[in-house]
Amino acid sequence: MKTITECIREALQPAFSACGIDPELAGVVLSNRPDLCEYQCNGAMAAAKRYHKAPLAIAGEIVAQLENCPLFEKAEAAAPGFINLTLSPDFVSAYLQDMQAAQKLGMKQAGAGKKAILDYGGPNVAKPLHVGHLRAAIIGESLKRIYRFAGYEVLGDVHLGDWGLQMGLIIEETRQRHPELPYFDPGFQGDYPAEAPFTISDLEEIYPTASRKSKEDEAFAAAAHDATVRLQQGDRGYTALFRHILRISVNDLKKNYEKLNVSFDLWKGESDAQKYIPDMIRGLKEAGLLHESQGAMVVDVAEEGDTKEVPPCIIQKSDGASLYATTDLATLVQREQDYHPDEILYVVDKRQDMHFTQVFRTAYKAGIIRPETKLTFLGFGTMNGKDGKPFKTREGGVMRLEHLIADIDEAVFARIMENRTMEETEARKTAEIIGLAALKYGDLSNQATKNYVFDVDRFISFEGNTGPYILYTLVRIKSILRKAEENGTKLSDRLRPAGDASEKALQLLLARANEAIADACEGIAPHRICQYIYEVSNAFNSFYHDHRILAEEDPEKQNGWLALLGLARKVLETGIDLLGFDAPDQM
RNA sequence: GCGUCUGUAGCUCAGUGGAUAGAGCAGUGGCCUCCGGAGCCGCGUGCGGAGGUUCGAUUCCUCUCAGACGCACCA
User: Fold this and answer.
1) Which of A58, A416, A422, A464 is the most exposed place for a label (fewest CB within 10 A)?
2) Beta strand pairing status for A72-78 and A28-30?
3) For strand A383-384 and strand A452-453, is the pairing parallel, antiparallel, or unpaired?
4) How would you classify residue A454: left for phi > 0, otherwise alpha for psi between -120 and 50, otherwise beta?
5) pLDDT at A50
6) What fold, for A115-158+269-384?
7) What pLDDT score does A420 carry?
8) Could you report the per-residue pLDDT of A62-97, keeping only the tens digit for each?
9) How confident is the model at residue A12, as a pLDDT?
10) Under CATH, domain A4-87 is a member of which superfamily?
11) What is the domain partition of chain A in residue ranges?
């Protein structure tokens, strides 16, 4: 369905035409003077220049045309040429009625028929998730939901770091500890054990140990390198061991992502892209794009008009090995071949901007990606501590994600216990739900591209622009609706025209729901949803304060209010779902 | 050195070629016979700096200052 802004604009256009003004100028925006009006049109000022006429006179003529328009309760011209619009309560409530009946709050299906791949994982196998993975997961999960809401078919890909030297390190370290295992017996012909020779906690110890050793011990480093090569050449035993590492890591990762309410449709990794590399390189050669430079094979991607130097994209190192860009390009080959996506969106740390510039340019130049396929890089900023520097543990190390989450849950739990009497086990469960909301909202309410300051105390506060405040509001709405039902009131979905200021303010805000979500989708900006639902929460709390809903004796009024609450609940629930968290029943 | 991004209230963040630049926190003053007071209603201060384009610039352009980040064989 049309957005409310579109409805208003379409009502204005005939008035513009009637005055001999280009109807294209009838754009409408939310008023920035709520004391004067609800929506405003600045078209008369733009028209003044083109038609050599005083802007206020034009505005006056247009306003005169609007006299009998049912959309407006009031339309007036204001100096120097604003057209100030106040909507009629009947129009607003009718719009909301349509919205309530519509699918997805009447949201435009801009992505209908389109397929998008979202790449927002990037964890390494055999290594625990840490806060560096947090933003990709949170932002990516939200975008996935937003895209789906806009009608896209979306595939979320975790894109594991499961190839290269790290695997060689683990394999070599395992070999030195347990040389007797069949994986290391070149003559072994039988089936390898189904059980892995290590657990996830073993792996988490083996990898850093091996990594440290390789830096101190040249012989070990060389052996790890050999192991990597053997694995890449398809050695049977090493491949079997690799499968164990992968399986164990993926199981652990799934568990941890689940705690974050984050999921992926594809569990592909760098290893899956390897088989596409030879053909891809051949293609680059045949296209005449690949050439030797300082011993490496590269593709030039500098373009005219670059303000900075864009170094060539390295496809093969001097020693013939492939690297980051190679794998990412091969992954694109695979994605194009398997899915034919219309869009691929990477949610990755913004420091990798240059890398993706190189990869994207190479992909288009080489025809790996169709020209009409949109490749987008959403580079997100760093999560910093209160000191403004990248977030660390108190000891200065990298914080594991599960520890961060546990800390937040504990803090929320303490707050629940000090405020309310809730049974302890119940409070623990609730604290997990609220904690996740606090974490995600705290992150998502910032512009993704900017660095932000992580402050537990602020994020878990129940006051202000926080996740818990949104949840509190939603829980409050649910509680009233529940009580109404308990009182035997049949919940109505008949909205009524607003009878006063706070009711109208809430209605106007709810009428913008589909538009706000569409904005977030177009701008790849979940923080716009945060801002919107925060405004809805504030508007509801004001409305709540002004109206005694359950005590209202006029059933027509009460029904209208309950219907309004129902819609507010729907909008808030949709909002938090798009952000990737849930609300508890009580808090 | 070159480049990219960022700079908005004491702090954390929104926002816009247009009217009086918004929130929250912190500070402070009110509001509970009433559906959840974890709420509501008040009170103060600000677009890093200098030019330019424009009827109008915090927004666009140039320069400048400050900070973060990036500048081929790591991922």
Assistant:
1) A464
2) unpaired
3) parallel
4) beta
5) 85
6) Rossmann fold (3.40.50)
7) 66
8) 999 999 999 999 999 998 899 999 999 999 999 999
9) 94
10) Arginyl tRNA synthetase N-terminal domain (3.30.1360.70)
11) 4-87, 115-158+269-384, 165-259
The b/e string for A520-559 (b: 16+ C-beta within 10 A; e otherwise) is bbeebbbbbbbbbbbbbbbbbbebbeebebeeeeeeeebb
CA of A371 to C1' of B50 (A): 44
CA of A352 and C1' of B69: distance in angstroms? 10
Instruction: Note whether A4-87 and A115-158+269-384 share their fold.
Output: no
Protein-contacted positions of strand B (CB under 7 Å): 2-6, 12-15, 18-20, 23-26, 34-36, 38-41, 55, 68-75
Length of chain A: 587
Strands A115-119 and A153-157: parallel
Say which nucleotide is closest to residue A453, CA to C1' distance.
B12
Q: What is the pLDDT of residues A91-141, one digit of tens each?
A: 999 999 999 999 999 999 999 999 999 999 889 998 999 988 999 999 999
Distance, CA of A541 to C1' of B56, in Å: 38
Mean pLDDT rounded to a whole number for chain A = 94
How long is the CA A386 to C1' B60 vector, in angstroms? 34
Calculate mean pLDDT across residues A538-546: 95
The identity of residue A229, as a single letter, is: V
The amino acid present at A528, given as its one-letter code, is: R
Instruction: Pick the range with the lowest mean pLDDT from A50-54, A333-337, A567-571.
Output: A50-54
- Considering all nucleic acid strands, name the nucleotide whose C1' atom is nearest to the C-alpha of residue A293: B72
pLDDT in tens, A179-224: 999 999 999 999 999 999 999 999 999 999 999 999 889 999 999 9
**Close Cβ partners of A38 (under 8 Å, ≥ 6 residues apart):** A30, A31, A85, A86, A87, A508
Alpha-carbon distance of A88 to A82, in angstroms, equals 19
Q: Which two tokens stand for residue A541?
A: 């709390």
Residue A35 has what pLDDT? 87
Omega of the bond prior to A80 within 30 degrees of 0, cis?
Answer: yes
* Amino acid identity for residue A391 in this structure: F
Tell me how crowded residue A475 is: count the other CB atoms within 10 A of its CB: 18
